[in-house]
Amino acid sequence: MRLFLLIVILTSLSLSVSSEEPIKIENFQELQEINDNLGSDYVIVDEINVPREHNFEPIGSCDYDYSANECTQDAFSGTLDGGNHTISGLEIQDNEEVGLFSGIGKSGIIQNLNLNSVNIEGNRSVGAVAGHNDGLIQNVNVSGVVNGEEWVGGVAGRQHGYTGLNEGNATVKKVSMDGDVTGASAVGGLVGRSLAANILQGSINGAVEGQKHVGGLVGSTKRGAEISNSASYGEVIGEEEVGGISGRDTSTIYNVTSESTVTGETSVGGIVGRQAGDINHAYSAGNIKGINRVGGAIGSKNARPDASNISSSSDVDGETKVGGIVGRMSGTLKSSYASGDVSGTSEIGGIAGNLAADDIVDANYTGNVSGETSVGGIVGSIQGHADYREAGVQDAKWQAEDPEYDAIGTINYRSSVKIENVEPGEYENSHISDFQEAIRSYVSQVIWRLF
Questions:
Q1: Which domains does the chain have, with CATH numbers?
Q2: Which of 1, 51, 262, 325 is most open to solvent, judged by the fewest CB atoms within 10 Å of its CB?
């Protein structure tokens, strides 16, 4: 009996310390065979060239169940370690959940991989690495072209978290895209749509083009997403809610920079097209062009979130509600600095085109504003309200070569508007003017860019 127990104990110890070796992948046929076992661990041990005009079948599948917040079909739940090798010439044409992986489950990990010269086409949830991601994609670099209709991203078409901000939970980290991404709705250089999920240390160098919710990094975010330590370089083109970092945003954004030129029609911004989340430490340098609600950093800003330490050297051109930092805003804007020229027709301001409610505090504008009506060195027009929610500007200065305009163009409901310590002249808090270089330097130190 004692001998039997000893054998059982030794066997248990042996099992506890042993681990299976990952399955080695040497060619594209073996890569395709991951479909036969979606829960195993794999490692790529050589460079992989996919034959020309070979339509690769996406690995796994994902029929997303929104009530359970997970893929109901066979999503990939193992680990693929690329060993820093490259898969070249990946071509995929499919309908939904299109990518190297159709769906990555909550426990799935894709890491240390390069995808070179991809050509990915689909309709909904389209990305080079994954059509849908619930897991972790890290240390992955992509080059090529991704094209779809809805939820289209250079790395992942859509990602969905399930417990809020948690690194490793529906996250892309240290990822880059060098190429073009096109679609219609929710189109981003890295991720098309990100819900309660994260984009950390990511970059895009290329063109992102769509119609609605178009962003240099992500088309749209929702519910507890985070974007940080990331950058956008290239061009972003859309129509409604278009931004150098994010098109429509309800996430937390900090330590980001965009040098992309941004062109759209309504709610167009160097960082965010339409903001409904917090932004802290953001810098925009690319030129911005739109029609209505156009800003060097933010096109349209909602009331609840805060924005602070925002800087823009972008030239901004539009028609109505055009500002060096934000086109149309409510909520609080703290510590902002703009230095590009701002031009338009009506409601044109060095910092904000239109201030509907709440406050601008600690702002500086250096440049030239031009327009026809409601033009100001700091704010084009302040709306105010007759019965509720005061609006105001505090501790602000502007400096222009031709100071033709006052600080504020027009004020409505003057009794509910407060203006304190606002005057032309050189800004005394010089640390704000140094912010542009500081944020650019910081992001360049932490950003992961291969290309």
A1: 18-162+184-189 (no CATH), 211-451 (2.160.20)
A2: 1
Contact 327, 293 (CB under 8 A): yes
Q: Tell me how long the chain is.
A: 451
**pLDDT profile of the chain (451 residues), mean per 10:** 43 46 95 95 96 88 74 88 97 94 94 97 97 95 98 96 56 96 98 93 97 98 87 97 95 94 98 93 96 97 83 97 95 92 97 89 93 94 68 84 79 74 65 54 53 38
CA distances from 392 to 214, 351, 389 (A): 31, 13, 10
DSSP label at residue 14: H
Work out the burial of residue 431: count CB atoms within 10 Å of its CB; fewer than 13 is exposed, 13-18 middle, 19 or more buried.
exposed
Q: List, in sequence order, the alpha helices (H) in 305-425.
A: none
pTM of the model: 0.90
CA separation for the pair 79, 83 (Å, rounded): 12
From residue 431, give the alpha-carbon distance in Å to each of 230, 231, 352, 399: 23, 22, 21, 16
Question: Within a 10 A sphere around the Cβ of 163, how many other Cβ atoms?
Answer: 11
CA–CA separation, 311 and 293 (whole Å) = 18
Structure-derived torsion over alpha carbons of residues 392, 398, 403, 409, reported in degrees to the nearest 10? -20
For residues 374 and 416, give the distance between their C-alpha atoms in angstroms, rounded to a whole number: 18
**Is there a contact between 109 and 136 (Cβ–Cβ < 8 Å)?**
yes
User: Which residues, 6 or more positions from 125, have their beta carbon under 8 angstroms from its beta carbon?
Assistant: 62, 96, 97, 98, 131, 132, 148, 150, 151, 157, 158, 192
- Cα–Cα distance, 408 to 377 (Å, whole number): 7
Q: Is the dihedral of CA 49, 146, 312, 172 positive or negative?
A: negative
Task: Could you list the beta-strand ranges (E) of 130-264.
Answer: 130-133, 136-147, 150-153, 156-160, 171-182, 185-188, 191-195, 198-209, 212-215, 218-222, 226-237, 240-243, 246-249, 252-258, 261-263
Q: Is the dihedral of CA 152, 154, 159, 163 positive or negative?
A: negative
CA distance 334 to 328: 15
